[in-house]
Design a protein that fits this description.
427 residues, alpha/beta, 2 domains, five-stranded mixed β-sheet, two-stranded antiparallel ribbon
Length: 427
């Protein structure tokens, strides 16, 4: 922002205001790639400004590296690079660039082709990797709005309005974006060609993303992070236009007020979310204490080769991550797990243990497949299918062949390592 406004303090306040977005603050330090990919796009924009100011091919290459990195992390980040390439191509066709300008050369085209080829190669590798490791959940198909009826669309829109909008941006950021949009529309005719075209195509790309992946807006708010670049560009353009008409102190005061308002709103939202994360109201939401160490499982005789069934997990893999084991989370099955389904996936994944948070779920079906309790700690109730061999990371299957005499009936039994006695044969 400093490269564009040339005002260090205003740049700091503008950047601070953007960072008051609750979803950026919440997902920024997490393992999800959305927030890092978004900041890579911002770094791409800063590098492009530097390349234009210095007419530097090196900075153009750096911008391409950031763009490729962002799209490899999250393919939805392609909205901005595509908008920039289309805007540059239109400018080149309409001869908007100076003959001695970097943008008039073929370097932008060469960098764009290299970036998109690298991204396509990366996506091909990801698809091959997921196929090899049976990671079918990580889909690449769309969820367009026209697949759903009006009640479903209305439900998703209601969720976006009442749950999504308060988390997408802070109140201060919404206020600043509204002012920036007013300045932008007021001076649209005099705006620079590249800025005007870029914002137009980013808006079109954002609308297309919403329509094509409409259902995903219902799933998680971080799907909107890729769209945050439009508010960022409007904020930057609005600040630049405002500086041309108002005193710097006025802009500083407005940004300071919006930042303070945004910080207060973001703290309120994040406090509620972190309260739910650390003190969940449902046993399905895992608190930090539910994430076990490797020693806790090993000391209970659960080997690294154990395969867990986690039927209560509402996510694809958070329970398996907490247990540090592979297995099947029964994602999307809910209460529809039957004996045939359990038998099929037990054979497919070699399931050896059952992990529950609520013992009320431990019904007759699970008792039949996982009859023995293996561990109870940190809210986890773990059951197993067979007896572990104490001190070894393997399982043993006992086969007993008994040949009774023709005289009196004989009763045999086997005692398990946990001192349980089970009858084997009686004749």
């Amino acid at each position: 922002m400093r490269k564009y406004t040339h005002r260090p303090v205003i740049s700091v306040l503008g950047t601070t205001l953007l960072s008051t977005s609750p979803i950026l603050a919440y997902y920024g330090p997490s393992f999800l790639p959305d927030a890092p990919a978004f900041f890579m796009i911002l770094m791409m924009g800063a590098s492009l400004l530097k390349a234009g100011q210095k007419q530097s091919r090196g900075w153009l290459v750096v911008a391409g590296i950031f763009a490729a990195w962002a799209m490899m992390l999250k393919i939805s980040m392609a909205i901005v690079p595509l908008a920039f390439v289309i805007s540059w191509a239109i400018g080149h066709w309409q001869q908007k660039w100076s003959a001695f300008s970097l943008w008039y050369s073929r370097w932008p085209l060469a960098v764009a082709v290299a970036v998109f080829c690298a991204v396509l190669g990366c996506r091909w590798w990801i698809a091959q990797y997921n196929t090899l490791h049976h990671a079918y959940y990580f889909f690449a198909d769309i969820r367009p709005i026209w697949r759903y009826d009006w009640p479903a669309i209305r439900e998703i829109l209601r969720g976006v309005c009442f749950l999504g909008l308060p988390a997408y941006a802070s109140a201060g950021l919404y206020l600043a974006i509204s002012g920036s949009l007013w300045f932008w529309l007021k001076h649209l005719k005099s705006a620079a060609f590249f800025w005007k075209k870029s914002i137009f195509f980013i808006t079109l790309g954002s609308l297309a993303y919403i329509l094509l992946w409409f259902r995903m807006l219902r799933e998680h708010d971080y799907y909107v992070i890729c769209l945050m670049v439009l508010p960022a560009m409007l904020l930057l353009a609005g600040i630049r236009l405002a500086l041309l008409q108002h005193a710097e102190k006025t802009i500083l005061s407005a940004l300071a007020f919006c930042s303070l308002l945004g910080w207060s709103h973001s703290c309120f939202i994040l406090d509620k979310r972190l309260q739910e994360a650390f003190y969940p109201l449902s046993t399905r939401n895992l608190p930090p204490s539910a994430f076990l160490s490797a020693a806790q499982l090993s000391n209970a005789g659960i080997p690294d080769t154990a395969r867990f069934l986690c039927p209560e997990d509402p996510s694809p893999n958070i329970a398996l991550l907490a247990l540090q084991r592979h297995g099947w989370s029964a994602y999307n099955f809910g209460d529809r797990i039957t004996a045939d389904t359990l038998q099929k996936y037990s054979a497919q994944y070699g399931l050896s243990h059952l992990a529950l948070r609520d013992t009320m779920v431990y019904g007759a079906l699970y008792r039949e497949f996982f009859p023995f309790q293996a561990l109870e700690t940190n809210g986890w109730h773990v059951y197993r299918r067979c007896w572990p061999v104490v001190g070894r990371s393997s399982f043993v299957v006992l086969q007993i062949v008994i040949t009774p005499s023709k005289s009196s009936p004989i009763a045999y039994s086997v005692t398990s390592p946990d001192s349980r006695s089970f009858p084997v044969l009686q004749k």
